[in-house]
Amino acid sequence: xxxxxxxxxxxxxxxxxxxxxxxALFLNADANPVADxxxxxxxxxxxxxxxxxxxxxxxxxxxxxxxxxxxxxxxxLRFNAAGKIDATPRSLFENSSPNFxxxxxxxxxxxxxxxxxxxxxxxxxxxxxxxxxxxxLGHPLPYLNYELLPQLNYSSPIVWTGSSYVLFxxxxxxxxxxxxxxxxxxxxxxxIEGTEGTGLVGSPxxxxxxxxxxxxxxxxGFSDPSVTETxxxxxxxSASTFDRRARTLLSVDTLQQRTPIIASGGTNLLxxxxxxxxxxxxxxxxxxxxxxxxxxxxxxxxxxxxxxxNGTDYIAIWEQPxxxxxxxxxxxxxxxxxxxxxxxxxxxxxxxxxxxxASNGMATLLIFYSGDGLNASRLRADGTFxxxxxxxxxNLEWTNRLSLAASDxxxxxxxxxxxxxxxxxxxxxxxxxxxxxRLSPELVLxxxxxxxxxxxTPFESEPAVTWNxxxxxxxxxxxxxATPDQIRGRTVARxxxxxxxxxxxxxVDGGRKxxxxxxxxxxxxxxxxxxGWGLPALQDMVRTAWLPKLGSPVVSEKILSLxxxxxxxxxVGPTAQEEAPDFEVxxxxxxxxxxxxxxxxxxxxxxxxxxxEVAR
Length: 616
Prior knowledge:
5-stranded antiparallel beta sheet, 4-stranded antiparallel beta sheet, elongated
């Protein structure tokens, strides 16, 4: 900008790779175009154009090159809104290198200019006179990745402060500031931002008000190498000392949102999810509408592990890498059901991984792995750990899926337990069965090492459990070889007695990974379809239905989503059907409330819109 107008450098080209011309578009204060200046005649040269204003005219600088030719020249041109000041571009210098930087950076001290360019690791700053007629000596720079690439929506990372130039760059781990004199010599170089809390950093851009810099940059979590999306941060930096004054999160990458978990507080819902590298929470109405204008960020990096309602507030639980190999810490926090959205309380449990959590409104129980095996501990109302010495649960070191449900008294824990004898297959596989045990609110293990719930076939797995006010219902997947997987169920009474046989009662043919909840009148069940050996393959999908009681057919079976999703189900009842004839719709929409956040992803919006329409 020259103070009254904004100038945008751009180029047009003929498809797909034809010649293009470099241009500058002038916009007035209302962002309306007032002039369009051609800077260079059409050519095949690549790289973006950089601009600077020196108080009297603009200077444009770019690299002229030909595809597959190592020769290149750095060219410049003076212009204003009336058009070109120079009849043709000036060649500042020529060189030959296959690794030249395709887009130089440029800034002005109010008279002359300094440009930053280079070829790979050899990067340097050159002073240029105001008329572009004199090019000074190039001064080497500390190696940085200056992000001088056209596909990055280029914004010059070199700024004039009133007394010196400051150049910003990164090396993947750190954002650095390099102070330059008027002639381009390096005066100092300092790290202003590291990887703490953000992971890999890059793409720095900056602006100054004379006393401070605002440096914006991208950062991503390094806990999961497959995560490539980034958030945008900004740091306020002193222009005189390079001291960092404050850092804040500017925006959140919405390309991928993962691990949605939802809990019901009766009057509203709390959703927890991972977005970018961070963990976020937001409250929703019973109808799935947002109650908070913006989510609260629980952690800059981490993975949601659980969320529950303790009778008064929500307790959010997440895991965060602690820097050790294959290790993470467990975090808890309290989020109020009513009032302003905020985070308080909570605690950190070192070297722990959550396995299950539940609350009956009076006691809140967490089951987690730590260095000494499987443990159970209670939480206070503020999310801090009540038990300084958690209960260690023996003989459960080799469990896979584990589920927990609270009654108005005890808790029932169900899990997969691998048997000692291999099941005939190639290669041999260990058999697995579903077992259970009750835990009292005082952390008394009532059933010792537990009892069998399902053990009629070699593969009884993936248990889930819910409480219906009178008994627990345990559902699981029974694998019978060539026949499709079956979801079966069995009730467990308060005293631990079982109803029916070990084979359980058939609920769904061809299902896996069941999730179940009781809303006060009947069960809601969700599952993924499974493919039996030798049977026609079905389209991958997640289905849902109501189950009035164990032994009755499922009703209102619907496709929730094409593809496979791991679901989190929360009941929002109880509500009598006579009082709300469309309560099935409300339940479906609430269960789906977390998933609709994915509709912002253009690639999945259509596939997710269809089940939303079914729900309506």
